[in-house]
Amino acid sequence: MKRIFALFTLSVVLCAGIAILCTACAPKETESSGVESSATLTPESKPEATSIPVASAEPQDTLANPDLQGIVQEIVDDGFTLTPVQVESSDGAAAAGAGGDASVDVDWTHATIETMHVYNGGHGEPQAADTAAIQPGKQVYLYGTQDSESFVADKILVLEIEDEGA
């Protein structure tokens, strides 16, 4: 009988402790905060979701893929020669190799020319420019078409690349 009484007392104390713990963990409304909560959670209701910014898998600022890109070699009368980094035809086949002795003649007669500041992880807005921005050693993105003798540029984007040491 003493064991049953001890077991009963222990279970009452344990239940009282759980009740106190549940009361302590329950959300409290305080009058001093001035915030009233009208939301009551029931088993059928869910708390409102909050939006948390998440890094996007897509790049924040992208450029259209150039039809041709490379390094300006030499300025000529109506264009320049380019050491290509990438040359693709409309069907996606490589039209010229990268570097080496390969070069492409670029016709800039009807091209829009822009410069763009490029830095680690991004780039600035393109700015209108003229042919003076195109100089030997500059990296350029070209948009246009390849004809039988040269690449005819519709748009030339001269990249102003920031030095890592600067």
Plain-language structure description:
This protein is α+β, with helices and mostly antiparallel strands and 166 residues long. The protein has a domain at 68-161: Beta Barrel (OB fold (Dihydrolipoamide Acetyltransferase, E2P)). It has one helix and eight strands. It has a five-stranded mixed barrel with strand order 1-2-3-8-7. The N and C termini lie far apart (87 Å). Mean pLDDT is 73; it is low at 49-60 and 93-99.
Globular, elongated, flat, extended or rod-shaped: what is the shape? rod-shaped
Quantity of strands, as a count:
8
Q: What fraction strand?
A: 25-35%
CATH class of the domain at 68-161: Mainly Beta
- CATH third-level topology of the domain at 68-161: OB fold (Dihydrolipoamide Acetyltransferase, E2P)
Helix content: 10-25%
Q: Which class do the helix and strand fractions yield?
A: alpha+beta
- Rg value: 35 Å
Q: Low-confidence segments, ≥5 residues, pLDDT <50?
A: 49-60, 93-99
Number of helices: 1
Give the H and E element order: HEEEEEEEE
